[in-house]
Each structure stands twice: as C-alpha cells, then as structure tokens.
Amino acid sequence: MADLFDRPSDAPPAGAPRPLADRLRPAKLSEVIGQGKLLGPDGPLGVMLSSGALSSLVFWGPPGVGKTTIARLLAEETDLSFVQISAIFTGVPELRKVFEAARIRRQNGQGTLLFVDEIHRFNKAQQDGFLPHMEDGTILLVGATTENPSFELNAALLSRAQVLVLERLTLADLELLAQRAERELDRKLPLKAEAREQLLEMADGDGRALLNLIEQIAAWKVEKPLDAPALGQRLMKRATNYDKSGDQHYNLISALHKSVRGSDPDASLYWLARMLAGGEDPRYLARRITRMAVEDIGLADPQAHRVCLDAWETYERLGSPEGELALAAAITYLALAPKSNGVYVAWKAALAEAKRTGSEPPPKHILNAPTKLMKDEGYGANYAYDHDAEDGFSGQNYFPEGMKRPILYQPPERGFERELKKRIDYFAKLRAKRGDG
Fold first, then answer.
1. Residue from 399, 299, 409 nearest 354 by CA
2. pLDDT attached to residue 241
3. What span, in angstroms and rounded, lies between the C-alpha atoms of 415 and 425?
C-alpha cells in the first residue's frame, strides 16, 4: 500500500495532470503535518539529523500519515540516493539487483537510503537478506509497515533498526491539510461548517484519503455551500481501518475487554460497535464476551455467565443485525456487574500447585475400594461421610498426604462473593475445630 505523498518512480511528463496529493507533497521535513513528536528538535528524527547520525528505521503507523514522504525527505537531508521498493512486488532476484546497485553506488562515494514499503510482507529469509548490507553500510534501511513490528519483523532486523511510531492525523492536522489544499486550488471548498467537519471525519485520520475527497469536491459545480446531509449523499464514508486478523483486531478487543473490566458501559458499547462496524465476526465477540464473564466477574455475579450464553444463543437465532442487540445487552450487563477475578486467580494457583506436586496420589481415605485387595491396602479406611458429621462438615483432608494445604480461592467482598467468603470463613473455623478435636 502506498503512503501519503508517495511519488511514482517515473516522473510524469511536463504538463501532465498531477493528483492533488502529488502537488501538495512537502518539499522539506518542516512541512510535514502531524508528526511533530518525531520531527521536532527533541524528537528522535530531529536529534538524528542534528547530530548527523541517521540509523536504519522502521516506520510503524496507519496509512496516509507520511511514512513515504518522510523517508524521501530524509534521503534529501542526508544526501543519500533514495531507492523505493514494495515488498508486495519485489522478489529475491529484484532484491539482489537493488543490493548490487547500492554496492556500486557506495564504491562511487554515494550512500543509499532503501525505503521498503509493506516490509512486514517479506518472509523471514527475505528479511534476513537485508542484514549483511545494513551491517556493512551498503544501505540505510527505512521500512514502513501498518502492522505491529514486534509480531511481523524478525528480532535480528529489529535489533539493527529503531522503530518509530507515526500517529494517525488528528482533526486539527486534517484541517491544516485542507487549508493547504485550498491555497493550492486557489478557492475555498463549497462546504458549510458542519459539512467541513464531516469531511474531516470521513478521512478517518488518513491524509491521502482527505486530499482525494477534496479533489472530488473541487470538481463539483454547486451554486451554494453544501450542508452535512448533502455532502453525505454525494460522498461515501471511508471504510473503517480495521483488519480482523491484524493489529487493529487485537487493539480493539483489548479496549473492549478493559472497558468492561473498568465498569464503563458507554466505552464498552462504543468498542463493541467499532468492532462490529469494522466487520468483526459477532460469534467471535460472543465467545470473548462470555470469556469476560468468567474471567472478570466470576462468582461475584453467577448470573453473568448465563446472560452471555443466552445472548450468544439469541444471536444464533436472530443473526445480524438484530442479534447484535443481544450482545450489546450482555456487554452492558457485564460492565455494570460487580467484578471479581477470585476464581481466575485461584484457578491459576491450582494449576501451579498441580504442576509442582506432579503425580502425588489422593489420600487413601477418599479412594473407593471396590475389591478386597484395595480394602486391604487401606483404600477408603476412616473416610468421614460429611452428611453424618455435625454441621454436615467433617473437615477431613482431601489433598495428597504430606502436601501443605494451600489457600487458593480468596473471594473479595463484592457481589455474591461476600456470601461465599462467609462460607469459606465458616468452614475454616469448623476445620480448625475438628482438627483441635
């Protein structure tokens, strides 16, 4: 995927029409909009340029925020030859040619900034192929990716390059870009204030998308400024930036889960809506919502689990979009339910104890003895039948012989678990009493 102000490798003939995005491409780094944290005097790139020590980089950010533009301008600032390739269209033979050309260029006293768009699409072997050329100075690598480098790029490559995060453009950034476009077009956009704001929101943080929309609007012949409904009829909203198997997927499900855990129903509904609007599978969400009930609510509200399963079943019967309302009801219930991870913590502790004690057998007094041999071995001997004990509680040991009794489940005093804590404390007193006896 090309990025904001991405210039084709072959310059257009003189007089050929040029897209607005191409005409507005910054000529210097100070003209780049929206990435002041990187390019400012105290930003990572600002410091590198002022010290004359530019290192290999990986730009991580959404489409249309200036990754290609900044790479090109870095090459100009450092007098490096700019070479651009895309991992989508470049194979091993082409890479060899690129490295050989850079080697010859270096012998002639010229360095090379190799910009690799969509670098995460190269496989492990292809990524490893960059390493020797980075280490001997043949190339200075600048990669661009919309995916999380931690997951998509090799550790060896990441150890030789600094990852810089580029942020999506804010509405204020987009407004500056729109004003720059109006100066280039030498006229104001025929939009009322609310329609102009709607236009900026349609771009969804993508500078190129905004310029493409502005170019469409500039070609319209309208007698008076358009209001928001009229603009909405003429333009389609840009598709939400959401990848059901990529970084956005994990970011948004994390936001949804933590909003529920934080007892914020409004934020929970917002992130649920964002995921559904982005095309997420509602069945995946139904499963994750049920997971939230058992992990973050547990026995503080035993009904929460049932609410989620009922919502899941309702969705299966109704489908979309009607069934999505059941998921929204479940997520709202979870957000407002008392929270407890008591069972979750206890379960993890139980797994750790099980791993630590290995194959320790249960105590013989709680084992069944269906044969004489087993009875002779002491199976079932001295078993205390709790229903016959005072208070219906014998206080016997049910852990392996010699194992120190752990305390795994410690319910907080929230919701229904207040009652469970009373029962635990009650049984602890009876167990101590039986032990003393």
1. 399
2. 60
3. 17
Peptide bond into 190 cis (omega under 30): no
d(CA 336, CA 25): 49
Q: In what order do the strands lie in the sheet with 162-165?
A: 81-86, 112-117, 140-145, 57-60, 162-165
DSSP states along 49-112: HHHT----EEEE--TTSSHHHHHHHHHHHTTPEEEEEETTT--HHHHHHHHHHHHHHHHTT--E
pLDDT at 105 (0 to 100): 94
Tell me the sheet residues that pair with 114. Answer: 83, 141
Dig out the tokens for 313 from the structure.
Answer: 């079943």
**CA 103, CA 66: separation in Å to the nearest integer?**
28
User: 363: closest CA among 382, 349, 344, 345?
Assistant: 382
Given a contact cutoff of 8 angstroms between Cβ atoms, the answer to whether 129 and 100 are in contact is no
Q: Torsion angle of alpha carbons 287, 288, 289, 295, nearest 10°?
A: 110
Return the ∠ at Cα 243 (arms to 280 and 240), rounded to 5°.
80
C-beta neighbour count of 287 within 10 angstroms = 12
Task: Please tell me the distance from the alpha carbon of residue 410 to that of residue 341, in angstroms, as a whole number.
Answer: 10
Instruction: Give the global pTM.
Output: 0.66
Q: Give the tokens for residue 277.
A: 């609007």
d(CA 1, CA 89): 11
pLDDT number for residue 337: 95
Give all strands (DSSP E) within 135-279, no chain letters: 140-145, 162-165
Phi-psi map region of 255: left, alpha, beta (phi>0 left; psi -120 to 50 alpha): alpha
* pLDDT computed for residue 4 by the predictor: 41
Alpha carbons 29 and 353: distance in angstroms, whole number: 58
Q: What is the pLDDT of residue 2?
A: 39
Residues 400, 361: Cα–Cα separation, whole Å: 6
> What CA–CA distance (Å, rounded) separates 354 from 77?
61
Flag residues of the chain having pLDDT under 70: 1-16, 237-247, 435-437
Q: How much is the pLDDT for 239? A: 54
144-157: b or e for each residue (b if 16 or more CB lie within 10 Å)? bbbbbbeebbbeeb
Beta carbons of 340 and 304 less than 8 angstroms apart = no
